[in-house]
Design brief:
The complex is a heterodimer of chains A (115) and B (490). Chain A is of the alpha+beta class and 115 residues long. Chain A has a single domain, classed as Dimeric alpha+beta barrel (Alpha-Beta Plaits). In chain A, the strands form two sheets. Chain A has a four-stranded antiparallel sheet with strand order 2-5-1-6. A two-stranded antiparallel sheet of chain A has the order 3-4. Chain B has 490 residues and is mainly α. Chain B has four domains: 127 residues, no CATH class; 101 residues, no CATH class; 87 residues; 102 residues, Serine Threonine Protein Phosphatase 5, Tetratricopeptide repeat (Alpha Horseshoe), CATH 1.25.40. The termini of chain B are far apart. The chains are: A alpha+beta (115), B mainly alpha (490). At the A-B interface, helix 2 of A face helix 5 of B.
Chain lengths: 115, 490
């Protein structure tokens, strides 16, 4: 098994001041996804939603600036850490990850110590 | 080691001479030696960087190694990758095995089954490498291979079809998580055994660029754990399509080299046909695999007639049909029948089967004029439905012009170009203005035809095609001078 990070990139304006039912729908979709990871034979190790990019603070060298590291239309809005047998299984799982206003990126996690 | 299913299962240890102990560290140098020795048997005695004191490599041994390199590389590497569980290690061991073969076969004679000898040798080297370097085994991300759910080896019964390792290899090379150009490079490198320099030459990029491309792709396979396996049947149609697309791309790159003086880069064409043949043999029930082989054979049957004696491009309608390769046509047509019939039984025919059927209609026609155009139009309609592509639609427009006249064809092309838009797939595609030019010429609109030919000339970068287009422009401007009102003399 190997670890993969699923990074969720979405247009965050879609989530600004959402109607309560839209928020509800999004929450339900993510709850459902959490269950589907296991059904697909993987394991959910963790995950979080992030506050939107206006709350971000960037540091380069020792210069502290307001805002995200890079301004992009689709910003990192959350992530899941999963364990899967191989890339095919990870992609299979990531395809189910809700990201209606963007998409997801799958990155293998680097492993350092021998295992 | 478990009993390994596969072609080498019968290669008993006793019948295979023990390979000389090799150091995988030398494999990089060995690659060049094996490649050179394999490439030209002329270099028999001068393999300077070859195995030390190998003595004279007899020409017939050099030829046998070269032959085994061409025919068996994919099989040997694929089988070794399963033991090594790492593509780089497998590649080094296989290269090393070919170097060993030069020496061993000179002393002991060429084995009856060179592929089995090379596989056993390469696998032993891989096991040695793993044993010697335990960290290698734990450090390198493994190629994942689902264990077969069968009982004791061999107990599954003789009738059971066991996927050939070469299929695992080619599906791994063409995994959708890899960029298309990486898929192409890896396929040539790992399945065909071409050197990075050869691949770079085929695609007219620098060796450094190609080496970086191959390294990056291999790194992704291991770091992201792209599985070394044939995809499950639920994913097979899409995954197989990627494999066939890569092979087709190799063929078209070779068939009309995008740049440079040679219209056909024969080595790429031959590699593509060999790959198509291999996939078709390994997946006999897949109709699109059959369709692709048919398409390549039927197209390649015309290879000898695509250029005239002076090296000028000859259009389909002017080609000497007596010189078409009837053997290739017969084989292609037999495959088309199967690809279409099978496809009709289980859903619609795929795009490769339909393209092959189109090529077959051309191959069967006694002359360009006597081609079965209604049949072609029907096939293009089906192809467009199966594979909506502006390029297919452009070809269909040419068929329309043959059935309903050049004006109808021209209207169709102009409609397509408008539909496609200024940034569409047809923009910059030199066959579009070339096809327009031909129809305008037929309509006697010489001035417009000449402008369209010039437009095509600006976009084309194959020398033979450029020469053809330039020739058309010269012919038209002469005609214009002769008949300033634009009328084209018969």
């Amino acid at each position: 098994m190997a670890k993969y990070l699923i990074l969720i990139y979405e247009d965050e304006t879609a989530y600004m001041d959402p109607a309560p039912e839209a928020w509800q729908t999004a929450m339900e979709a993510h709850t459902r996804f959490a269950g589907q990871v296991g059904e697909k034979g993987g394991q959910l190790l963790g995950g979080d939603a992030l506050q939107p990019t206006p709350t971000a603070t960037s540091i380069r060298g020792d210069v502290v600036t307001d805002g995200p590291f890079a301004e992009t239309k689709e910003a990192l809005g959350g992530y899941y850490l999963i364990e899967a047998r191989d890339l095919d299984q990870a992609l299979d799982i990531a395809k189910l990850c809700p990201a209606p206003y963007g998409g997801v990126e799958v990155r293998p996690v680097m492993e350092f110590s021998g295992e | 080691m478990r009993g390994e299913p596969g072609r080498d299962a019968g290669a008993g240890e006793s019948s295979v001479p023990a390979p000389p102990g090799g150091d995988p560290g030398q494999a990089a140098a060995g690659q060049a030696a094996a490649g050179q020795a394999a490439a030209g048997q002329a270099g028999a005695g001068q393999a300077g960087s070859g195995p030390a004191d190998a003595g004279e490599v007899r020409p017939e041994v050099g030829a046998a190694v070269a032959e085994a390199h061409r025919r068996e590389w994919a099989f040997v590497l694929a089988a070794t990758a399963r033991v090594a569980r790492d593509i780089d290690v497998a590649e080094e061991c296989v290269q090393d095995a070919y170097v060993s073969a030069l020496d061993a076969w000179s002393r002991q004679g060429v084995p009856r089954n060179p592929g089995a000898w090379l596989t056993t040798t390469a696998r032993r080297k891989a096991l040695d490498a793993l044993r010697r370097d335990r960290t290698l085994r734990s450090k390198l991300p493994l190629l994942i291979e689902p264990e077969p759910a069968t009982g004791p080896a061999g107990a599954a019964g003789e009738g059971e079809v066991i996927a050939d390792d070469r299929l695992r290899l080619i599906f791994t090379c063409c995994h959708p998580a890899l960029a298309r150009e990486a898929q192409v490079a890896l396929t040539l490198r790992l399945v065909c055994g071409l050197t990075t320099a050869e691949i770079a030459g085929a695609f007219l990029v620098s060796e450094t660029t190609m080496a970086a491309r191959v390294t990056r792709a291999k790194k992704k396979i291991s770091a992201a754990r792209i599985a070394y396996r044939v995809p499950p049947s639920s994913e097979l149609p899409d995954r197989l399509d990627a494999v066939l697309t890569v092979i087709h791309l190799l063929y078209t790159t070779g068939h009309t080299a995008p740049m440079g003086a040679d219209l056909v880069r024969a080595d790429l064409v031959d590699r593509a046909i060999a790959l198509a043949r291999m996939v078709r043999e390994l997946m006999p029930d897949e109709r699109e695999a059959r369709g692709l082989l048919a398409l390549l054979l039927l197209t390649d049957a015309r290879r000898a007639t695509r250029l005239d004696a002076a090296g000028r491009l000859t259009l389909l309608r002017d080609q000497d049909r007596a010189k078409w390769d009837q053997g290739a046509i017969a084989e292609g047509e037999a495959l088309v029948v199967g690809a279409l019939r099978g496809a009709l039984r289980a859903g619609r025919p795929g795009r490769f089967a339909l393209q092959a059927a189109i090529a077959a209609v051309h191959a069967e026609a006694p002359s360009y004029a006597a081609t079965d155009w209604p049949e072609l139009l029907a096939l293009y309609d089906m192809l467009l439905a199966a594979w909506p592509s502006p390029v297919v639609a452009l070809n269909r427009a040419v068929v329309v012009s043959m059935l309903y006249g050049p004006a109808a064809g021209l209207a169709e092309i102009d409609r397509l170009a408008e539909l496609d838009g200024p940034d569409g797939r047809l923009a910059g595609y030199h066959y579009l203005p070339a096809a327009r030019a031909d129809l305008l010429r037929q309509l006697g609109r010489a001035g417009e035809a000449e402008r369209a030919y010039r437009e095509a000339l600006e976009l084309a970068d194959n020398e033979a095609e450029r020469a053809f287009l330039a020739g058309q422009i010269v012919t038209l401007s002469h005609a214009e001078q002769a008949a300033p009102d634009g009328a084209v003399p018969g």
